[in-house]
Amino acid sequence: MVPTVDTVRYQYLTQTLIKNLCPVMLVGPVGTGKTSVAENTLGKLDPKSYSVLTVNMSAQVTILVILLLILFVS
């Protein structure tokens, strides 16, 4: 990924929010770098302090599916 002003900004904000234990939700149109920012930010977290679970979403994913993934994977 080639960093842009926006992705660097979002990366910094996301890292800062996580360090301060604030929830983060990335939203925006297709192609704005949400996935890249999330993957880069999560990849830099200390694995001793954080456990990362990646869930690919679609229109068919319900809250029940997400809860089951969390329960059975963790």
Automatic annotation (TrEMBL):
It comes from Dreissena polymorpha (Zebra mussel). GO terms for biological process: microtubule-based movement. SUPFAM superfamilies: P-loop containing nucleoside triphosphate hydrolases. It holds the Pfam family AAA_7. It comes from the Eukaryota. This is Dynein heavy chain. Keywords: Membrane, Transmembrane, Transmembrane helix. The chain crosses the membrane at residues 50-73. One of its GO terms (molecular function) is dynein light intermediate chain binding. The keyword Hydrolase does not apply. GO terms for cellular component: dynein complex.
